[in-house]
Design goal:
Aspartate Aminotransferase, domain 1; 4-stranded mixed sheet; 17 strands; 19% strand; Aspartate Aminotransferase, domain 2; alpha/beta; 7-stranded mixed sheet
């Protein structure tokens, strides 16, 4: 049997490309025929430090040789070390962490936390947002097409247009337990939140006794050129959650709650068998350590280089995003451009039918950025 024959054994929830990848190193991956690709999607903003990053690999392998799993009935060293590092990055008097294994699970933890901490059932979320595919996460995802076939969802969610401050002020009422934002919408099309809106969200949440929750699953861990995207705005949430880039491709997620936030969880309120898995947490420690000021400056510089290069390509418009979380509009259907780029050895994502999405490794070099721009220019020509 070839691997193609085996494809029917997978439930068709994804429209996958006709491409089987077998190996990766740095910003490049190889398919089963040996063809090399420059990877400017990086597992959808997951491979922060490049494929098979040797430092992360060494940290995971050292832990693999020591201890894989003991359940959350006990403490392990990596979970404590990672919590300390994330709490330090978050700032303030010390934040607290709940570990899970994915972005959607981070959303679930945040929704439960907000209801428990405030005693209020309502969630105010944003049109076009994306928070994951489980029922709670889907229920606060502002994309009706993704929800329609699975209604009814979790009650209590309402939606406002991104950056419509008046609509937000109207939507947040006495029953609102949380306002939920992505600092830059990812799956929804790479749409940045405006300063005025994020400040209004902070003020409204505080004034009306709701929690301000940021989904930093995609924007977090250095992606936008600061460790958390909220740092660009100086608006700190009561809690945020991370996943995608946190362990460079090993599954991990976490909810990070500010010390100043209303208290929520007690023993028995929430759990995850694999949450804080020692191997994933050890890898995540190596990732967080690697995201220092120099790497963050590199992300900003490569983001600027990419943005300038994209703007210079005829037929590309509306270049947007921050750091290495970028998108642009193309004249052809975005799916066609992705396939043309793939044929030339460049992997890209889409953000809706008319936009391309670029989330390369944070470690991408200037030469690789220039190569991506050249290949993309050929793909849209
Ligand atoms: C990817 C993503 C999620 C969902 O993460 P999963 O690990 O696929 O569950 C949630 N929120 C945001 C902002 C994301 O980009």
């Amino acid at each position: 049997m070839t691997t193609t024959d085996l494809r029917s054994a997978i439930l068709p929830t994804y429209g996958r490309y006709d491409l089987t990848l077998v190996r990766g190193e740095g910003s490049r991956v190889w398919d089963d025929a040996g063809k090399c690709y420059l990877d400017c999607i990086a597992g959808i903003a997951v491979i922060a430090l490049g494929h098979c990053n040797p430092v992360v690999k060494a940290a995971a392998e050292a832990q693999l040789a020591k201890l894989w799993h003991v359940s959350n009935l006990y403490w392990t060293e990596p979970m404590l070390q990672l919590a300390q590092k994330l709490s330090d990055r978050f700032g303030g008097a010390g934040a607290q962490v709940f570990y899970c294994n994915s972005g959607a699970e981070g959303t679930e933890a945040a929704l439960k936390y907000a209801r428990k901490a405030t005693g209020k059932p309502g969630f105010v979320a944003i049109e076009s947002s994306f928070h994951g595919r489980t029922f709670g996460a889907l229920s606060v995802t502002g994309q009706p097409a993704k929800r329609a076939a699975f209604e009814p969802g979790v009650p209590g969610a309402s939606f406002v247009e991104l950056n419509d401050t008046d609509a937000l002020a109207q939507a947040v009422g006495p029953d609102t337990g949380a306002i939920i934002l992505e600092p830059i919408q990812g799956e929804g099309g790479v749409n940045p939140v405006e300063q005025q809106f994020i400040e209004a969200a902070r003020e409204l949440a505080t004034a009306r006794g709701a929690l301000l929750l940021f989904d930093e699953v995609q924007t977090g861990v250095g992606r936008t050129g600061t460790f958390f995207a909220w740092e660009h705005h100086g608006v700190k949430p009561d809690a945020l959650w991370l996943a995608k880039g946190l362990a460079n491709g090993l599954p991990i997620g976490c909810l990070l709650v500010a010390n100043e936030a209303a208290r929520g969880f007690e023993p028995g309120d929430h759990a995850s068998t694999f949450g804080g898995n020692p191997v994933a947490a050890a890898a995540a420690c190596a990732v967080v350590d690697a995201i220092d000021d120099a790497l963050l400056a590199h992300v900003r510089a490569m983001g600027d280089r990419f943005t300038a290069g994209l703007r210079a390509i005829p037929g590309i418009s509306n270049v947007r995003g921050r750091g290495l979380m970028l998108a642009c509009d193309v004249e052809q259907p975005a799916g066609d451009v992705v396939l043309a780029a793939m044929a030339k050895g460049l992997l890209l994502g889409t953000a809706g039918s008319g936009s391309l999405r670029l989330t390369p490794p944070l470690t991408i070099s200037a030469d690789e950025v220039d190569e991506a721009i050249r290949l993309l220019g050929e793909a849209v020509a």
